[in-house]
Records
---
Amino acid sequence: MNQGPPILSVKDLKVGRGGVSVLDVPSLDVFEGEFLSLIGGNGAGKSTLLLSLTGLIEASGGEIRFRGNAVSSSRDMLNLRRKITMVFQEPLLFDTSVFDNVASGLKLHGFPGKNIRPVVEEYLALFGIAHLSGRSARKLSGGESQRTSLARAFALQPEMIFLDEPFASLDPPTKESLIEDLSSVMRTKGITAVMATHDRMDALRLSDRIAVMDKGAVIQIGDASSVMNRPENEVVASFVGVETTIEGTVRDSNGGLLDISINGAVIRAVGDFETGRRVMCFIRPEQVTIESTPSRTSARNVFVGRIERITPMGFFHRLSIDCGFMLSAHVTHQALQDLQLSEGAEVAVSFKATSVHVIKR
Amino acid sequence: MELILEGIKKAFWLLFTFDPEVMGITLLSLKISGTATLVSLFLGVSVGTVVALNRFPGRRFVISLINTGMGLPPVVVGLFVTIFLWRNGPLGFLQVLYTPTAIIIAQAVIATPIIMGVSLAAIQKLPENMRLQILALGATRFQMIVILIKEARLPLLAAVMAGFGSVISEVGASIMVGGNIKGYTRVLTTATVMETSRGNFDVAIALGILLLLFSFIINAILTGVQQRERPR
């Protein structure tokens, strides 16, 4: 994936608003054909980064290069805007028919009139809205509107597409089917994409790489799975869904296997740290197994603990278990009943040494 | 009571027989107020768009001025336009006082702030990211402005209607700068004033009905426009 020169790269990109720095990205590369997601909370700077990468807001400093060429003059900006495009959270459709909406970008680009129809029809079909072609944009549902907005953007056959929270206003089933269609279009067309989202599940489903943002900075970037499983700090950890964050000391380090002591308990983990080092351990809740009594398991870490709290989370329950340290685990509603779990009850918990991600404290 | 009934009867007679004098006055009114509205449309939309899309020092003050201008009393406009067009006035050399052109100027002064204010609000009311979305589709700045105006076309139509409605029904400025000269600068409102003062209620009522009719058509269009919604 990360081979060859980047299609888009920025150096020392800074954006200020009223004298306050809202974005500071020393370096970021986007590679041809990849899907990069920017995840982070509200105000993390995701939208600001997207808007400055597309030249839609002016950066107060730094350099943007598209295919190696610096984008500096307003002429360059227009040229860049003709090679890329962006879809927003709101569909922002024009008050005309679905067909004319999808054709609008092509017309702005001066695409020859007689060639517009086949292109528009192809993208209406790809986004499953061919039957709505003649309908007024005023008479569309939320999902249909966003499909039209995406078709309008993709019909431009851009070299890059930027998506700013494209699913944030949709209900779950609508969002589900749109993500399916979007990822199939992405696969067939092989367009490079950068998406901002606050939903890590959306990011995981679509992305090759994920960049986690906080306070106007990219705090970790890497393969989707490495960011999820090996967060580099607590902010990333909490954002990617790590619920157990515990501090400990390396008691023994032997051939990549660590014994980490935590309040007297000992966790086995994989990593390379010298003895005596203070470390942080991150454990994802899905990787903790719950049983009523300890069984023979290949997991290196087996503890007996007391359930302090059971929190219903919709499709699953979160257990907060005190086993010398606080551990968070997810169980299904079925498992909760089968194991007769209740607050105050004792349970056996286990997790593999490879499920513990260790970083320097 | 009989006076009114007689008047109404005669008025309808004048209307249905297409009385040449009444028709002449009506056509002149439509021509003068229509031209004034077109001039205001051009000035109002361009300045309104510029103010809506740009941030500059004193912007709030300019918007307050425009909003104040939306309620200019026609007699005050008449007064100042008369002074400007007076033989020794700053624009006296134009020699247009007491001509239809003078009425067009005065009515344009009344309608321009109305159209400006409504178009400013209409452009500002478009979703905040609409400008960015249009640019992201590869538009030049000029193309973006054209699309924004197109997107605001319904409120702009409302602005035109409101502007036209206010000038076709104003009397103060028209009588002051036009002089109510028969067949030349006599319009629906000035004629109504004159016929009423002469006691020719039938003609006055006929003219009044026409004014009401225009007002109804304008409001019917306005209501239709206001009921429409924008896409998401």
---
Amino acid sequence: MMTQYVHQPSFMTGDEFSIETFCLLNPDGELYEGAEEPALTREHARKLYQAMLATRILDERMMAAQRQGRLSFYMQCTGEEAAVVGAAAALDDADMIMAQYREQGALMYRGFSIDEFMNQLFGNELDYGKGRQMPIHYGSRKLHYMTISSPLATQIPQATGYAYGQKLAGEGHCTLTFFGEGAASEGDFHAALNMASVHQVPVIFFCRNNGYAISTPSTEQFAADGIAPRAFGYHMHVIRVDGNDALAVYEATRQARKIAVEQNQPVLIEAMSYRLAAHSSSDDPSGYRAKSEEEAWRVKDPLLRMQRWLAKKGWWSDEEEATQQETLRREVLETMKRAEKRPPPPLESLISDVYADVTPALQRQLDQLKRHIRRYPEAYPRGAKSLDLTLSSATDSQGEA
Amino acid sequence: MATMNMLQAINNALDIAMAEDEKVICFGEDVGIFGGVFRATSHLQEKYGKARCFNTPLVEQGIIGFANGLAAQGSVAVAEIQFADYIFPAFDQIVNETAKFRYRSGDLFNVGGLTIRTPYGGGISGGLYHSQSPEAYFTHTPGLKVVVPRNPYQAKGLLLAAIRDPDPVLFLEPKRLYRAAVGEVPEEDYQLPIGEAEVIKEGTDITLVGWGAQMEVISKAAELAEEQGIACEVIDLRSLLPWDVDTVAESVFKTGRMIVSHEAPLTGGFAGEIAATIQERCFLYLESPITRVTGLDTPFPLVLEKEYLPDHLKIFEAIRESVNF
């Protein structure tokens, strides 16, 4: 860039720029004047909405299950379904998604089955993650959805690296990474954006600005006008979108993907939304925000908006809504019962996958553990079950398993 | 065979790996056209292009975060951290991400293609922040492999093995030896095994264990002891994680005495792990306490570096005390 010299000092704050919010549908599901409907087929639009609905219902049921003590922990996507599913719907299904933890809607959209969700939530023998991570840490290789990691923002520079590999592979794919406005305070966020811009990487940074990082409101997270202006500092394309408007999110992400894949340029998307639910099952928002604030956002429910638009198009009906809800609730309950009953992963899974091959040192540790469990099976019911020990009769045993 | 210093051997290993597999990508601060501040990546950008060998912005957490993603995608990422002293901004990415990638996903995803190269160690008047030996932070992290070569031949063979290993490897390069260590190195491709120690000198009276640059110091102490009629068995661990317990234990069964030496501070150092394991294995064979000869429990000094370092004389004294216990 050419340096322009001036001879009077002047300071800038960023207020010189204002970033608009892209939106297509009003809360009644009608297109704003001058808004152009994205080219979504009936099929695609219905799939998008159905994933939003399924996510809402899964979340309601599983939160209830957590409250009943059937599940140790849960996190809801509630209120942010349009942002998450709208983005996923604009990608190629083989594009990589690297999520934070509240984006089960994207996985739902890609066809992760309710059984697959349940197996992870209950950490049973069919969980792909082998019962190693807390509930909601999903991952799917076949659906190109990177396994969730609890540390915040670590996935953001990884997305830059992953997308760099995609660029070199030259197959026209990109990576989209989700994160919250709180995670954007982490160093990893800044490292990721700068590197993506410098190395011209096809990655989409999708910020769900939902107003809260646990209890900390976004006003105490940053002083600037949200996350979007940060893109300027990295010379990156950026768009702010109404995160409760699935059509707008879809269209913004679709165009972002074009920039990423066709120009090898990163894009930052800031989706403005609201976390209608608690941060997690361990959180109680009544301690830090007013019910009236939540109510104001409930009116802007992203599901209602999309549903109304579909209904106006004649692509969805109240009857279908009722039937779908009923079917989904039943499916969730039935699969939950199945998943709960499945046995835990075997004892050997304690030491597998630390390395590609089990090391002799780890094998020794497992053998020692097995001997111990054989002496005290009651104290380790899962391990004992895995070793086929009948509780109370087997109190001692010789030899190795 | 060619005569190479350690940097040339490392450069040669990278060259072979990049020529063989176009998925091998080298990057880090100043790694591109300049070839790294120590020149370990010299000419690689010229040969393989900017897309496969490049400078990164100055952000260690970003370098390793990027490397994790790149490796997860299926590329073979060889990331350089300019000095091991500056690896700590990337600690979270290494400890929480690199090391746990395979385990937490149930082997759906892994970053086995990742090798992190970084110069470590003192003896170059580098003071606090160009001298540290941070290996023990990483040996406490299941999922990582930690490898340290002692000479050019070892560096090339172990680095090629690290790059091709199915698990992520932290490859610590003794920078004091970068140019100081010169030796015969085959020009062709070869690998040395990760996880196997090497007995570099046989002896019957006492076992001396170390790795990296410390092997030179240990060997010098062994020569002094030899003059006094003490036959030392010298073992280069080569891999700290996983480490070769059997080779060390076999030696101690024979000698009944052991000294472990490293530059890093005493408390919490990896020598403690070796001592604990060997006393469990060899308790009834020990003739004297296992001794550690290490740096002091201080930050790494500058002017008094010579006094701080576990040199050959300190090791020689420890040998005498052990033998005369």
